[in-house]
Design brief:
- This protein has two helices and twelve strands.
- It has one domain (about 45-159): Immunoglobulins (Immunoglobulin-like), CATH 2.60.40.10.
- The protein has helices at about 10-30, 50; strands at about 45, 55, 65-70, 75-85, 85, 100-105, 110-115, 120, 130-140, 145, 150, 150-159.
- The protein starts with 9 loop residues before the first helix and ends with a strand.
- It is of the alpha+beta class.
- About 15% of the residues lie in helices and about 40% in strands.
- Strands 1, 5, 6, 7, 9 and 12 form a six-stranded mixed β-sheet that branches.
- Keywords: Membrane, Transmembrane, Transmembrane helix.
Length: about 160
């Protein structure tokens, strides 16, 4: 059996292209997963109230301490010391777990970034006095609190 190529008019090629794109869009909307909330490195105002608060078990209270050290080359290094808390980047945007999640780092009250570990470098800090703060947050971004008070730490530095 011999197959022959049949020429297709350009208008039919365009028609089938549009059909394929539309079918792909419909199928992807049926099977796609929601886009996770963007928490990339950017300055935003504190949205902890929008995410809610989680009262911790008073017998298992997590804690965080912060140390900010001028970097030998440039900027500042932020170091966290957490107790009774586990960083869980693999569970971001999932249901809260007991004393697990991530931290939110703030510069002068504005959210700087989300932390999944114990250290972060701040580059290009303007001259003057600055308040560096960190809060412990659940997987769903709710703020951990004890008796309504956020589990957090702050330190003031002079650049």
């Amino acid at each position: 059996m011999r197959l022959e190529m049949v020429p297709i008019k350009p208008v039919y090629g365009l028609y089938w292209t549009v059909v394929c794109v539309l079918v792909g869009a419909v199928l992807s909307s049926l099977t796609g997963s929601p886009i996770p909330e963007d928490h990339s490195i950017h300055f935003t105002h504190d949205h902890s109230a929008a995410h809610g608060k989680i009262e911790v078990d008073p017998r298992l209270v997590p804690s965080v301490e912060i140390d900010v050290v001028r970097d030998a080359m440039s900027g500042w290094n932020v170091y966290l010391d957490v107790q009774n808390f586990r960083f869980a980047p693999e569970k971001v945007n999932l249901a809260p777990g007991q004393n697990e999640g991530h931290a939110h780092l703030y510069l002068d009250g504005a959210k700087l970034t989300r932390l999944y570990g114990m250290a972060y470098h701040i580059a290009g800090l303007p001259e003057g006095e600055h308040v560096i703060s960190v809060s412990l947050n659940a997987n769903d971004h709710s703020e951990f609190v004890l008796a309504g008070v956020p589990i957090s730490a702050s330190l003031t530095i002079e650049n």
